[in-house]
């Protein structure tokens, strides 16, 4: 998604070869117009599938899940992060280890809102190590729902997340795929190109 | 907002005379259509003011800040909750004590995204004790920005939040104002009525 790549080039702060801050327009201050365009792009990519629910994790996935859910015309659901799972109701839960923050937490979803009838699109802001997204995929499977794809706004393609998800049989689409970065420079994988290449294999 | 009050009557789970769960349509699973209507209502109420930014707190304020920001055509910004404030950058922060969860945390906003030029609308899902919203008001004032109002989706009018905010000179509008509740019943303050009454004083 060219407009997103250009915005990352212009406003993203690359703090190291793995840390990219996009908090001026994506995940602290949010350019709502861009978020809605991101939702439309997910709608273009996944709109042909019979999705019944968009799933994400609080907090920074919410704006993109909402944008996708506007485009697809379905509700969205966000997993909560908790140190301890509440026992007051039945939940699906999965452990997640954040490598960035060096901490572990539990993500959970009420069993009332996800079940065998649901056809799910998972959306998140970043795909890097894939820890949180793998947790969401586990929850979708535990719920007996059908997973129709994962959409990430930004993918750090040099990290293992995409590989982990593809090994689980999950189809992944990211709107900006970073192949490498360092302070002052960022390189994107050309999505069109990679589609052409994989088509010719 | 009648459609919201009806939805609370139909789907809200009143667990005690202070605890209302609305996680089937507002703050876990989200009915995006209703969230957009809520945004439009905030737009109707506050649209005549020169708002430059909508401000909320992660996580469950995000969908309503986004909806308001779509209606008003401005970006939104969400405060982060942290146990310890990061020292890697300059932030405005305020302590918040959650009476529901019996825990204290720090909310913070990067100084880059809020300043004297900003005219702010604060939006959140609930106004009850007002703890989080008072923290946000403190941050807006610390930043030297101008606060043009607070919009809450649901207000528990029998708790002290509105009074605290009004004592700070803040104008508060809530879309559903609960005067009293108990398992199986919920009573709303008629917003039109209360506007009429205050106009005739």
From TrEMBL, chains A, B:
<dbReference type="GO" id="GO:0032265">
    <property type="term" value="P:XMP salvage"/>
</dbReference>
<dbReference type="InterPro" id="IPR050118">
    <property type="entry name" value="Pur/Pyrimidine_PRTase"/>
</dbReference>
<dbReference type="InterPro" id="IPR029057">
    <property type="entry name" value="PRTase-like"/>
</dbReference>
<keyword id="KW-0328">Glycosyltransferase</keyword>
<keyword id="KW-0963">Cytoplasm</keyword>
<dbReference type="InterPro" id="IPR000836">
    <property type="entry name" value="PRTase_dom"/>
</dbReference>
<feature type="binding site">
    <location>
        <begin position="128"/>
        <end position="132"/>
    </location>
    <ligand>
        <name>5-phospho-alpha-D-ribose 1-diphosphate</name>
    </ligand>
</feature>
<comment type="similarity">
    <text>Belongs to the purine/pyrimidine phosphoribosyltransferase family. Xpt subfamily.</text>
</comment>
<comment type="function">
    <text>Converts the preformed base xanthine, a product of nucleic acid breakdown, to xanthosine 5'-monophosphate (XMP), so it can be reused for RNA or DNA synthesis.</text>
</comment>
<keyword id="KW-0660">Purine salvage</keyword>
<feature type="binding site">
    <location>
        <position position="156"/>
    </location>
    <ligand>
        <name>xanthine</name>
    </ligand>
</feature>
<dbReference type="GO" id="GO:0000310">
    <property type="term" value="F:xanthine phosphoribosyltransferase activity"/>
</dbReference>
<dbReference type="Pfam" id="PF00156">
    <property type="entry name" value="Pribosyltran"/>
</dbReference>
<comment type="subunit">
    <text>Homodimer.</text>
</comment>
<dbReference type="InterPro" id="IPR010079">
    <property type="entry name" value="Xanthine_PRibTrfase"/>
</dbReference>
<comment type="pathway">
    <text>Purine metabolism; XMP biosynthesis via salvage pathway; XMP from xanthine: step 1/1.</text>
</comment>
<dbReference type="GO" id="GO:0006166">
    <property type="term" value="P:purine ribonucleoside salvage"/>
</dbReference>
<feature type="domain" description="Phosphoribosyltransferase">
    <location>
        <begin position="51"/>
        <end position="157"/>
    </location>
</feature>
<feature type="binding site">
    <location>
        <position position="27"/>
    </location>
    <ligand>
        <name>xanthine</name>
    </ligand>
</feature>
<dbReference type="GO" id="GO:0046110">
    <property type="term" value="P:xanthine metabolic process"/>
</dbReference>
<feature type="binding site">
    <location>
        <position position="20"/>
    </location>
    <ligand>
        <name>xanthine</name>
    </ligand>
</feature>
<keyword id="KW-0808">Transferase</keyword>
<dbReference type="GO" id="GO:0005737">
    <property type="term" value="C:cytoplasm"/>
</dbReference>
<protein>
    <recommendedName>
        <fullName>Xanthine phosphoribosyltransferase</fullName>
        <ecNumber>2.4.2.22</ecNumber>
    </recommendedName>
</protein>
């Amino acid at each position: 998604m060219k407009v997103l790549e250009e915005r990352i080039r212009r406003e993203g702060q690359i703090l190291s070869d793995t840390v990219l801050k996009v908090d001026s327009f994506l995940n602290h201050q949010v350019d709502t117009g861009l978020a809605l365009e991101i939702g439309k792009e997910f709608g273009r990519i996944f709109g042909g599938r019979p999705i019944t629910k968009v799933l994400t994790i609080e907090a920074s996935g919410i704006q993109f899940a909402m944008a996708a859910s506007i485009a697809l015309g379905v509700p969205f659901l966000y997993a909560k992060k908790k140190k301890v799972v509440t026992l007051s109701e039945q939940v699906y839960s999965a452990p997640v280890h954040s490598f960035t923050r060096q901490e572990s937490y539990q993500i959970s979803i009420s069993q009332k809102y996800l079940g065998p009838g649901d056809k799910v699109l998972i959306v998140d802001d970043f795909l890097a190590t894939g820890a949180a997204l793998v947790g969401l995929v586990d929850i979708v499977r535990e719920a007996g729902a059908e997973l129709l794809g994962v959409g990430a706004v930004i993918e750090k393609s040099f990290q293992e997340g995409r590989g982990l998800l593809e090994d689980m049989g999950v189809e992944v689409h990211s709107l900006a795929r970073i192949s490498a970065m360092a302070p002052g420079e960022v390189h994107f994988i050309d999505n069109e190109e990679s589609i052409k290449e994989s088509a010719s294999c």
